[in-house]
Amino acid sequence: MFTPRSFLFVPGDSARKMAKAGSSGAHALVLDLEDAVAAESLPAARQLVREYLLDHADRSRQQIWVRINPVDGDQALADLAQIVAGAPDGLLLPKCGSGEEVVRLGHYLTALEAREGVAPGTTKIVVVATETPGSIFELGSYSSAGPRLHGLTWGAEDLSTAVGASTNRNDDGTYALVYQLARTLCLLGAKAAGVHAIDTITPDFRDSEGLAREVRRARQDGFTAKFAIHPDQVAIINEGFRPDAREVEHARAIVAAFEAAGRAGAAQLHGMMLDRPHLTQALQILEAAGAAR
């Protein structure tokens, strides 16, 4: 399974929007059964999502994920009972309190994959890990969440509601300190767990320049992907997570320097000493560029 850089949210109750999203260029679609669907529309939306999954079994160019309802609520099992038959590539778990909920969801998936004849362990999980105040204090718990965990992402909208804030932004448009903290801890929690850190949405889909800045900062900081709420955001995200030619050239030079040094733990390049972290970073850049050897 390839690693998506762009995840596009699509309402799970709209067959038209699902069909349109398929040509968006997004590396992964996230068919939404949570915030985008009213409670009374959930049964019909689950059926639509199931049909879309079954009709799009070839995921070689675009993965299909599903945002289910919170696992500690009364709708998640009904979501899973319908959609696992379609073998989604992964699930987005909202309002997650800790790694224990990922473990519990994994048990549900193991049983349902067996029932539906889906290859065991293939359904991955990404957690929205910062939507409640208590969840911030559990970001270290995902290190023991199990092999299904693919990544952590953070969210500022639900968190600001939960803390009773009137806004999550400063006057200059940047995130207020509370949300910068949530973003930073999510990044560190993901890296501690050995999984991907995925940046949250940019709500204003008309602000292309702002989105490009956020993508650039996300990649610089160590995030490997970003969520989109509109098809117009996808190309900017895909391009922003692709290292430029200068970065790729420098990364290749670092790899070549270590190859020339044999098994040495250090190498020289243009008069600078390099050690193993430089090599690791270079290989990550080449992988992101699709140029890893």
TrEMBL record:
<dbReference type="GO" id="GO:0000287">
    <property type="term" value="F:magnesium ion binding"/>
</dbReference>
<comment type="similarity">
    <text>Belongs to the HpcH/HpaI aldolase family.</text>
</comment>
<keyword id="KW-0456">Lyase</keyword>
<dbReference type="InterPro" id="IPR011206">
    <property type="entry name" value="Citrate_lyase_beta/mcl1/mcl2"/>
</dbReference>
<protein>
    <submittedName>
        <fullName>Citrate lyase subunit beta/citryl-CoA lyase</fullName>
        <ecNumber>4.1.3.34</ecNumber>
    </submittedName>
</protein>
<feature type="domain" description="HpcH/HpaI aldolase/citrate lyase">
    <location>
        <begin position="5"/>
        <end position="231"/>
    </location>
</feature>
<dbReference type="InterPro" id="IPR040442">
    <property type="entry name" value="Pyrv_kinase-like_dom_sf"/>
</dbReference>
<dbReference type="Pfam" id="PF03328">
    <property type="entry name" value="HpcH_HpaI"/>
</dbReference>
<feature type="binding site">
    <location>
        <position position="131"/>
    </location>
    <ligand>
        <name>substrate</name>
    </ligand>
</feature>
<dbReference type="InterPro" id="IPR015813">
    <property type="entry name" value="Pyrv/PenolPyrv_kinase-like_dom"/>
</dbReference>
<dbReference type="InterPro" id="IPR005000">
    <property type="entry name" value="Aldolase/citrate-lyase_domain"/>
</dbReference>
<keyword id="KW-0460">Magnesium</keyword>
<feature type="binding site">
    <location>
        <position position="131"/>
    </location>
    <ligand>
        <name>Mg(2+)</name>
    </ligand>
</feature>
<feature type="binding site">
    <location>
        <position position="67"/>
    </location>
    <ligand>
        <name>substrate</name>
    </ligand>
</feature>
<keyword id="KW-0479">Metal-binding</keyword>
<feature type="binding site">
    <location>
        <position position="158"/>
    </location>
    <ligand>
        <name>Mg(2+)</name>
    </ligand>
</feature>
<dbReference type="GO" id="GO:0006107">
    <property type="term" value="P:oxaloacetate metabolic process"/>
</dbReference>
<dbReference type="GO" id="GO:0008816">
    <property type="term" value="F:citryl-CoA lyase activity"/>
</dbReference>
